[in-house]
Fold:
Amino acid sequence: MPKIKNLCTACEESFSVDGPISEEALQRVLTILDKIRPSDVGLEQEAYVARNWNNSSRDTNGRREPNGTNQDMPPIKYMHIHECETFSMGIFCMPPSSIIPLHDHPGMTVLSKLLYGKLHVESYDWIDVNDQTEQLKARPAKLFKDCEMSRAQTTVLFPDRGGNIHTFRAITPCAVFDVLCPPYLPGVGRDCSYFKKSSLNESPAPNCSEVVWLDELEGHQPPEGFSVTSGSYKGPIIR
Structure:
């Protein structure tokens, strides 16, 4: 049986609408996802291009402005694989310099596998605050990760920890395989929100280093200039 179908079966047996049914079930899915390679999802050619990519092939698009906005970002493609009530699977193919802006995954456990390429990830978790701070528009978040990923590796984030709010910037062509449990569903509060860093500089709690204040963008809308196009999934079909 193709690895991707094994992964789907494991997800069906291990996930519920409330998240993974147990730590052991989650680990089973992580183990299978970690073994997925570009050839298992029809991305052999794209992985070859990434392996042979160099800075001289970079074009002038995808400039990042000092305030963190994006100018003429290269298009990102999302290849949908499968979705049901308890989980969804898909792949983001990111050209060099493209950015997935800061966003969250409310009430969700997310498994991510870098299939090929190199990217920079910056992620945060919310900080518990007092009633006075909750009156402010911005919310404080503590840095969880700020690093470069340059090898095929699998990570997991949870509703309240592990970097639930994150942003990706592609350094080379790269692809990220995402498994969301449960999937986004606005009607029950699982809508994707986007954020920008605030100029607020108050201390939300004692002994909190590496803290930023985040403003939520209105209407669950992404920053101007960000878009994702639909890509054609070329791997084994999940029915």
In short: Residues 3-14 form the longest helix (12 residues). Residues 131 and 164 are 22 Å apart (CA to CA).
